[in-house]
Amino acid sequence: MKRIIIIGAGASGLFCAIKCKELMNNVDVIVLEANKQPLKKLLATGNGRCNLSNKSLSFDQYNGEVTKPIQEIISQFDDQKEFLEEGLLTKWMGNLLYPASEQAKSVAEVL
Fold first, then answer.
1. Could you tell me the end-to-end alpha-carbon distance of the chain, in angstroms, rounded to an integer?
2. What share of the chain is helix, strand, coil (3-state, %, to 5)?
């Protein structure tokens, strides 16, 4: 069995863990978090409304050595579709993506 360790139980870490379990067979995913509870910072983002993403997501903002697979992931990623598949309705407010409820608690419940 493969083992994946994700450092950080914030929104990105937990979303990554969910996707790893969904997309990979025979994998054990472990999420490590320094805070006493996961998603602690998430509950405060966007004044409690939870800004999830923005429309300026671009490969140009990626700084890493492995580029081709990352470029493919970013170019094909649909924020709203991915969150909807996990059961979270979202809406764009200007350039920012929020849960439709505008409550960080909604995101925490899904993740």
1. 24
2. 40, 20, 40
What are the tokens at 25? Answer: 């067979």
Tokens of 80: 């709203």
Distance of CA 77 to the CA centre of its chain: 11
Q: Which long-range contacts (CB under 8 A, 24 or more apart) does 16-19 make?
A: 18/86, 18/111
**Per-residue pLDDT at 55:** 82
- Within 8 A by CB and 6+ apart from 109, the residues are none
pLDDT string in tens for the chain (111-residue length): 889 999 999 888 998 999 899 889 899 999 999 988 898 888 777 778 888 888 877 777 767 776 777 777 777 888 899 999 999 999 999 999 999 999 999 999 998
C-beta separation of 111 from 15 below 8 A: yes
User: Which of these, 11, 5, 7, lies nearest to 30 by C-alpha position?
Assistant: 5
Contact present, 47 and 93 (Cβ < 8 Å): no
Q: Which two tokens stand for residue 77?
A: 């990623």
